[in-house]
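Exercise 7b. Backbone tokens:
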């Protein structure tokens, strides 16, 4: 990000200048931004050259660096931190904005989630021409887009409903009936989706059905792909070509890849907040010989780890579980209360090696994931 940081010191209007003349899709949400941005860039690539971040740097400096690196691309797929979306949208005047989900993140950095929802709602109200690709299964995202004149609703799924038990507009309870939800005493309810996804198929307007076979695991990634494809189609992409392109995405900055560490086939997963952890835990292969859970508590992770108590760890019978990371003992306390048999090996690389030979799943938060990838390259000879 250093180039973008220095450039903005020289000229604070540079982001606006770099965005001029491009058709831009912004992607934001608490979880899935990097994955969806990569899929969106792939789908938009069927229309022409696309400027995008290679490494998920989603604040001003990283965005400017990405746009500077490809100044002549007519299209852009830009990941944006949810706190930065309003002013980035003002600078880049996007053609479309993908709204994935909203849930509690690091409270010591981000603050309360209802405040973020109100900021994003006000920010999107300034861009009436932009197409909002909004997840109608997420109550808070729906509130952001509900009054907007130009919305494509996608049933992308919501495995985490804890942060939207009450209506963000009225405070009344949110009630669920199957996939449908509504606010009692108001007309705020789940919109009818234009797009929906199931295990094998993406269903679109006018009876459109497209096979969807992703390289990435998990229901959340099928929802991410649905929103990425819907955004590309909103900009004119052919649906079948957009789906095929999005399905080629295999890993994002090391996430989801499998590497060999001695006699351990090690798959790397990243999670950064309660909703993300719950989704990542659902991807763990029950046949794996070991599960390493690595937790740090540095500033980018959030120094307050009380969120560990919101995550369900109670279903790992028969798998060797190892607590690792700088805050391994905090995690060990949580695992003990969850009734999960485990050992504590603070160094994640040593934790992997402590598992029985065979498949090992590694689930790490932000800096633990970053540091493990560095150690894999420097100490275990695994090339990025």
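Sequence design result:
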């Amino acid at each position: 990000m250093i180039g973008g940081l220095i450039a903005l010191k020289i000229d604070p209007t540079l982001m606006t200048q770099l965005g001029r003349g491009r058709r831009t899709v912004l992607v934001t949400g608490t979880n899935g931004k990097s994955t969806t941005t990569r899929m969106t860039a792939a789908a938009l690539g069927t229309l022409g050259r696309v400027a995008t971040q290679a490494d998920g740097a989603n604040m001003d400096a990283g965005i400017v660096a990405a746009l500077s690196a490809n100044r002549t691309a007519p299209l852009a797929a830009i990941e944006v931190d949810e706190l930065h979306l309003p002013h980035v949208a003002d600078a880049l005047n996007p053609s479309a904005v993908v709204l994935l989900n909203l849930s509690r993140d690091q409270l010591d950095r981000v603050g309360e989630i209802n405040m973020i929802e109100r900021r994003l709602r006000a920010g999107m109200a300034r861009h009436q021409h932009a197409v909002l690709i909004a997840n109608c299964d997420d109550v808070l995202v729906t509130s952001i887009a509900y009054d907007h004149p130009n919305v494509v609703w996608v049933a992308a799924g919501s495995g985490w409903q804890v942060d939207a038990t009450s209506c963000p507009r009225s405070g009344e309870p949110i009630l669920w009936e199957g996939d449908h939800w509504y606010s009692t005493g108001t007309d705020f309810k789940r919109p009818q989706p234009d797009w929906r996804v199931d295990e094998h198929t993406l269903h679109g307007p006018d009876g459109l059905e497209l096979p969807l076979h992703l390289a990435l695991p998990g229901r959340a990634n099928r929802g991410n792909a649905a929103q990425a494809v819907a955004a590309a189609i909103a900009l004119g992409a052919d649906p079948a070509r957009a789906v095929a392109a999005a399905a080629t995405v295999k890993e994002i900055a090391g996430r989801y890849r499998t590497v060999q560490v001695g006699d351990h086939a090690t798959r790397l997963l990243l999670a950064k907040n309660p909703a993300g952890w719950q989704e990542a835990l659902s991807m763990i292969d029950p046949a794996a010989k070991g599960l390493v859970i690595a937790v740090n508590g540095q500033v980018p992770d959030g120094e307050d780890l009380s969120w560990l108590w919101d995550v369900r760890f109670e279903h790992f019978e028969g798998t060797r579980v190892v607590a690792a990371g700088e805050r391994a003992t905090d995690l060990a306390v949580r695992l003990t209360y969850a009734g999960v048999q485990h050992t504590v090996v603070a160094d994640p690389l040593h934790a992997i090696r402590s598992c029985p030979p065979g498949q090992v799943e590694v689930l790490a938060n932000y800096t633990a994931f970053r540091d493990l990838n560095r150690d894999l390259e420097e100490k275990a000879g695994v090339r990025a």
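Instructor comment: The mean pLDDT is 91. The two ends are 20 Å apart (CA to CA).
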